[in-house]
Every structure is written in C-alpha cells, then in structure tokens.
Amino acid sequence: MQQLDLQVVETALHWARDRHDLWLCTVLSTYGSAPRSPGAMLVARADGSHVGSLSGGCVEEEFLASLAQGELREPAQVIRYGESDDDRRRLRLPCGGILQVLVEHRVASDEWRAHLEGLQAALHGQHRLLRRVDLTCGTAELLPDRGGERTSVLGECVEIRVGPALRLILAGVSPVAQACAGFAKAIGCEVIACDPREDMQGVLVEGLEIQPILPSMFIAAGGCHDATAVVALTHDPRIDDLALMEAVRTSAFYIGAMGSKQTSAKRAERLSRVGGLSTAEIERIHMPIGLDLGSKTPAEIALSVMADVLRVYRGKSRNAL
C-alpha cells in the first residue's frame, strides 16, 4: 500500500460520511508494461471528482467517461482496459499493457462506511488483512490475511491483501539517509527520520521534521509494522547498533546497515557479543546494505539501498534481477 492509496481510502470514507455514492476501483492484474502495480486504487464520484490513479491517465479518462454515460452501476464487476471486443471502443494503453480492474459501485450506507473504517484502521495498523469481494452480490468483508498474492480472482470472488503504507525509518541522519528520503518519497513511502544528536536538528530531510529521539526508542515504542524498512546509514554504532538490536525484534520486512564487508563482519560480531543477538537475528540484517551497483556517491548509495528495499518488498531474489 502506498501513501496515494491511503489517501484514496480516507477520501472514500469522507465522501461516504457525506452520503455520496462512489466508485472504488482496484487494479487486480497487469499484462505487459503497466504504470501501476496490482493493488493500486482510485475512488470517484458521479460528478467526476476523483482521487488516486490506475494508470498514467488514459484508463482514468475512459473510466470517468463511462461514469458520465451512466455505466458501471453493478455493485462489483471486473473490467479489462487495454483490449475490447468492440474495435470502436478499443482503448490501447500507450505502454502497450492491459489492466484488469475491480470496479465497485457503492451507495451510501452504514454498512459501507463501517467497511471503509475497518479498511482505514488496517492501513494505519500493524498487520495486513484480506479484503474479499463477492462479484455475484457485491458484498465485501475484511478477514485475517494468511499470505499469498497481492490480488487474485478466485471464481466469483476477488481477494485483495491490504496493509500499512510502506514505511521507511531512517535510523540517524546522514547524506545517504537524506538521499534515501528523496527516493522513498518518490515511490510513495512514509518516511520517518530519527536522530537525537543536537547538530542534526534543523537539518532538512526532504521537508521532513527530524524526530529528536534515538531510533531504537522509536522502534521499541511500536514504530515498526509488517511493511516497515529500517535503514541505519550513519556509521555511528551508538545510533546504528541500538536501532538494529531493536529492529530484529519486530516484524519489519527489511533491516539494513551501511558499511564495507569488513565493517559488517565486525558489526555482526559486536551485535552477537554485546547485543546478545542470535545467528538468525543477525542474518535478518542486510550487511552490507543495498545492491552491489558499484555506488560511490551518497545519491548512488541511496539508490542501491532503496532498490534493495523495493526488491525485498516485491519478493524478488537477487538472482531474479
């Protein structure tokens, strides 16, 4: 889940509370090149007001044109964009891809508002949930997530896994961390920078306010959830090591620390001896952090870090790259 999709859900809830009927769209699958991945969302009203994105703009235009013509009135249906049986209405995406989209037409009701509130709570919570939509009757429910593909169509049911927006915790501020913040914001991450050092207060990190607290304390207070990446990029063991020691005790999907292979080996020994970390806990830490791109400058190192974070988040092995 990205920050833009979180805005979609919160906008949908706001409109539902104002008694507006609305259409909630979710990308289920893509074929070929496509600008947004499965799970991306858009919400719209009959007057054309909308928030979110399904593509680079062409799909949104086609969808809104259908609304203006009084179409898409079923409670839930799956629409394919990028192909059509009717050549006169064939929509060809500039990227050459095909999108399969769940389109839900929801009338204002207490039940629908309660569903959106549950969805919002899941996105702000600690764990992922499964959203199941019945295509025959349009009912939607939230269930515990047992793992699997982000989206799937199983007969007459659509399943969509939802959870918190991808969060990046910068454990300490450095030039590399500052560059990471820029990349992370660009791909829709929530970015949190923690650094208690006085000389770091007032440093601008992509417009973010630096929290004057040890990253380890922020993490220990519940700062991590299933979609959290913790990156330690300061070379200061007082900052980095404590953050790593706390992070391995959380459900964070990515934990990494900057340093050479020699530095990383020394850190691993120190975390075992001083921090009491087990072999399994140490193996959770990406040391050295990032993909081996031959990076030298802070921006290049940050690019390698965020590329590796995204690789793990998408479930790709290094050999698959």
Automatic annotation (TrEMBL):
Residues 168-309 form the XdhC Rossmann domain. It comes from the Bacteria. Residues 15-81 form the XdhC- CoxI domain. This is XdhC family protein. It comes from Stutzerimonas tarimensis.
